[in-house]
Specification:
alpha+beta; Phenylalanyl-tRNA Synthetase, Chain B, domain 1; three-stranded antiparallel beta sheet; about 40% helix; DUF3877; DUF based on E. rectale Gene description
Length: about 180
């Protein structure tokens, strides 16, 4: 079983959390729906099948995130990341990552969508910006042909501040945002 894509996502989420809240050597719990896990592995299995697939994840992560415990209640899976996992991510996080720049930008009052567009353009000349016709989000932005960042970033201007959410490409499509 290839766990690389799931591992990368977990590390990305921890990096995002540390960029927002700062680093603490602490246990972390991350929750994933079954549908997202199926997307990571290009599978279509039920809870039992996924639990079986994930039974070797802790062994895979032993040298990086530590002894990760995976539990589930129905289609909701919880990854219990030990303190070593938070420390591993902190010690291996690059200084000038895009997510840190994005969080820094949107945390300032007065941030405009044009500022966000420009930030993406500073990180790549190959981006896609799509206006969304949804109550939840105004724009989707993604990097084209970047194997390190395949997420769909969705933004909502709420007047006094801008919020965002990152989606896996498959989750973005499944939620119907791409239509």
């Amino acid at each position: 079983m290839d766990f690389a894509r799931l591992e990368k996502n977990i590390i990305d989420v921890i990096k995002e959390e540390q960029a927002k809240l700062g680093y603490r050597k602490e246990k972390i719990r991350l929750y994933y729906p079954l549908s997202s896990l199926n997307h990571f592995f290009q599978l279509d299995v039920d809870e039992t099948g996924m639990q079986e697939k994930l039974s070797r994840f802790s062994e895979y992560e032993e040298g990086k995130l530590g002894s990760v415990e995976v539990t589930n209640k129905g289609e909701r899976f919880c990854f219990h990341i030990p303190e070593e996992g938070a420390e591993y991510v902190h010690n291996n996080m690059k200084e000038n990552e895009f997510i840190k720049d994005l969080i820094g930008l949107i945390s300032h009052h007065g941030c405009k969508m044009q500022d966000i567009f420009e930030l993406f353009r500073q990180h790549s000349d190959q981006i896609t910006i799509e206006e969304m016709h949804s109550d939840e989000f105004d724009y989707m932005i993604c990097f084209e042909n970047d194997p390190e960042d395949t997420y769909r970033y969705c933004f909502k201007d709420e007047g006094c501040h801008i919020i965002y959410h990152r989606f896996l490409p498959e989750d973005y499509e499944e939620f119907g945002f791409g239509k």
